[in-house]
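Hey, can you fold this one?
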Amino acid sequence: MLIMMTSGPDTPHRLGTPFFQAMAAAALDYEALIVTTMDATLLLKKGVAEHLTVKEGSGKSVLDFIRDAKEGGVKLYVCPASLSLHDMTMDDLIPEVDGAMGAARYTEVGLDDDCRVFCY
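Sure. Predicted structure:
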């Protein structure tokens, strides 16, 4: 499963589902990858996700969702072009990020016959 995540800090109510979906796939023994692009990349900047919640008063930050997904075996990547768009580098990112995955690679993954692509 490849999840292309574009939702960012401006739409916090949309930020839990990609991580739940990826955790479900991983729990079912599928490989689950999340690639952040566009505004979702802002979630990976140090200090951002820890101050966001999906629902006011929930007590669970978006960083908690990220960490839960990582503990469940989900791989988390950032699009390098998106880093550039937001004037960020890999040094700006939280340690939960597994690395960068560019457009050519995630296109290749997504076009594989055994892959399903979800977009959030």
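The chain has one domain: 2-7+32-52+59-119. Let me know if you want another pass with a different chain boundary.
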